[in-house]
Amino acid sequence: MPFFRFSIMLILICTKSAFAQTSIDTSMAVNIGGIKQWINISAKDTSKPLLLFLGGGPGESYIDNKDYFTKKLQEQFTLVIWDQRESGKTLQLNSSPVPLTVDRFQQDTHELITYLLQRFHRPKLYLVGFSWGTVLGLKIAQQYPNHLYAYIAVSQMVDQEKSEQMLLQRLKEQAATAKNQTALQELSLVKVPFENTDELYYQRKWLFHFTNNPVPDSVLKQYFSTYPNSLFVLANEASKINFTKEVPALQCPIYFFAGRNDYQTNHELTYSYYQQLKAKNKHFYWFEKSAHTVPFTEPDLFQQIIIDTVFKETYK
Fold first, then answer.
1. Is the keyword Signal assigned to this protein (predicted)?
2. Average pLDDT for 161-172
3. Is the pLDDT assigned to residue 184 strictly greater than 70?
């Protein structure tokens, strides 16, 4: 009998630990696209559904400041943040041996999704794209809808070349109204599509100025003066994509998050695309206090909609 009681206790202990919550917050290199690429996985409970965040840029890293805009998501999802090739820790580990193209990054994204689904034995995941990340996100949603519970498009790029043209015209009008001769002179040097990072710098400088964005000009100038040409070429390639024509329909749920004051990825183009898109399950959310950086301007609302609405409507 003592042995029997011990066996029962052992079974109960093992059963309890098998269903116990397993938290994680770890970073590692995984082989993606022929190179080592750095990811961070964080969750209060790894049995929760996977959520992959595709950051902006291209070239930006979000791992170090992830808690600011994903702390609540980490309680409800197994969150994955990725340093794409030529960014963050991935760039420290290795530079890309092949040219940077949208297609190459799209392949990387699909390989990472496949890796995550296999590692965690999951049929699907949630995909969040922000800014540049929406180029990859929308392409994945079109080609691999069965891999996704939903695609969340944050500041979706639709026709970025047109968006930049609209922005340039708007900035020139604002500069003329303000009688800002410096702005008028610098904006006269800008052409769309951009031919160099100086033009992109002037466009962003006066966008931030006329929207009262507190980014110091010295910081902005330093950023664009050191921005790699390979990423600039990649950004220009992405800007030429017109998703209205390239992705007219989707087979997976899509949720658009747009800043009411976003003129970088123009909110009017985003809403127009949402209206035209053929999808059985599509939704649009305005972020009234935001411009382009929705997750960082309104992080609580950003997370709340994903947890309280997207998850509840799509996790089946």
1. yes
2. 99
3. yes
Q: Given the structure tokens 């001769």, which residue do they identify?
A: 181
Which residues contact residue 20 at a Cβ distance below 8 angstroms, ignoring those fewer than 6 apart?
A: none
The answer to whether residue 35 scores a pLDDT higher than 70 is yes
Domains of the chain: 24-159+241-314 (3.40.50.1820), 161-235 (no CATH)
Q: What is the pTM of this model?
A: 0.93
Provide the token pair at 227.
């921005």
CA-nearest of 112, 65, 51, 116 to 85 is: 112
Sort strands 50-54 and 125-130 into parallel, antiparallel or unpaired.
parallel
Q: Three-state SS for 270?
A: helix
Phi, psi of 281 (to 5 degrees): -130, 90
Q: How far apart are CA 184 and CA 190, in angstroms?
A: 10
Q: What is the pLDDT of residues 50-59, one digit of tens each?
A: 999 999 999 9
Q: What is the DSSP letter of 146?
A: G
Query: Helix or strand or coil: residue 247?
Result: coil
